Each structure stands twice: as structure tokens, then as C-alpha cells.
Amino acid sequence: MEDKWYPGHIAKAKRRIGEKVKAVNAVIEMIDARIPYSGRAYEWKKLFHNKYTIILLTKVDLADPEVTERWDLYYKKQGIICIPISLKDDPQKINKRLQQIRTRIPSKSTFKRAMITGIPNVGKSTLINKIMNKKSMRTGNTPGVTKGLQWINVSDDFLLLDTPGILYSNLFSESVKYKLLLTSGIKATPDIIDSALIFGIKYLLDHYPQIPLEILGEKLHSDELDIIKVYERLCRRRGFLLTKGEPDIQRARTIFLKMFQDGTIGRISLETPEKLFTEPDESLL
Asked: For the chain, which domains are there?
């Protein structure tokens, strides 16, 4: 499993980050607002050497706004600056936000440098393109697009170091893996998609029960969840049928996963600060 979503360039990126972190005044961690805990699935304490850290909660337009507020408060209580941000905002608004961040970074000089880090596909390249006000970098809903490090001028007195997405080399927590997959943080491999979707649908039933009802037109019960039957229901409702009238299970699987990943399933958050570590599996990140 590890080899499929932990390519060699991630290990190289970690080495480069360790080398370059001394040259910056702060680290800006970009974390998907839908998974503000699981979205830190990398050795941030080891990599950043207690460097001053600011958290950018990205993709807030896809997350549950009430839950995002609670995560914002959770990090601020730990003394960490936490700033929710939508990468769909216009470039001027994002640049203004970054200048506000610059003023919060401690430094003896007015010129400041910060490093942008985060898991794959959290929006680092999109943020850089917004800063530069052009589509100069490859972006996409696929992990592993950015492979190298590069410096970006935000202004005459603020420099950002863009870095590739990073992850733990081993993820022992099944639920963390599922959350990463459902938010595009790791690649969807056939051996884990069904389990991740079962996890996601059960979470919806517990926290957003109206969503699966609207999608499938039928009530589901989390204690007796048969994922193939769920796919079949989606096929009947959407008309995903093969030539002989049989349900197109693969298409239903792909569509259901895409709804989670691109946010068309609705504004949801897959974890809350109040239930942090209540699942034994969660603490094994």
C-alpha cells in the first residue's frame, strides 16, 4: 500500500524541506478544512524544528462552516495562528490575506521569508498561481503534481518557498487513510476505494443524514451498509446501466468518490475537534 501513494519524490522533498527550513522565518501549513487533523499527516514537529507556524485552512468552501469555526478556535487555543481561506477568492483578496500573515511573522528585519507546506493536492500550486495572478503552475485534483521547490515573490518584502506535497511514509490509521483518499490527499487505489466510501457514507449517516437520502432517494442504515447495494441504488437513480440493463457498478463507484473529492456531495467536514482521539485508530497517525 505504501509504495502506491508514497512516491520517491516525497522523501526527497522532506530532505529539501529540512535543509531549507533554516532559511525561513515561518512555516505556513496549508491544511484541507475538511480534515484539519488528518490533513497534517506528515512529521511536522520533526521537519519544522519548532519554527513559527501559521495554519491556512484551505477549501473552506467545501467544509462545514460551523465545524471550521470550531477547528479555528481549537488551533488558536494552542497559540497557533489559524486562518480559513478559500482559494476561489480573487487574487487581490488572497494577496491581502498573505500580507496580513506577513505582519504576524516574527523577524528582526522587515523582509520576511516563509515556507508553504502541506499534504498533496491541498492547493499549494493554486495559491501560488493566485499570488502570481496567472496559471503558471500545473494544478489538478490529483496528488503529486508539484515535484520541486521554488521561491515566489509575494511582494518586495515577502518571499514564499513553495514545496511538494508531503506525507508520512507509513500511515497506520485506517480512518486517516480513508479521509485523505476522500479529500484527494492520496491516490485512490482499487484495494481501498470501497472501504473508504463505506467509511465516508457511514460518517454522512451519523453527521449529515440528509445527504445520502438526497443522493440515493432511500434511507440507509450504517450498521448494515452493503457498498455494492449502495452502488446499485445510485445506478438506478442516475440511470447508470450497461447494455443489458445491469447496473454500472464501476461508474457508480467513480461518481461517488468524485462527489466526496470535489465537494459536490455538499459542505461537509470529516472530523471535529471535540471527537479527536475518541477512536483508538485515530491516535496512531
From this structure: 2-162 (3.40.50.300), 174-284 (1.10.1580.10)
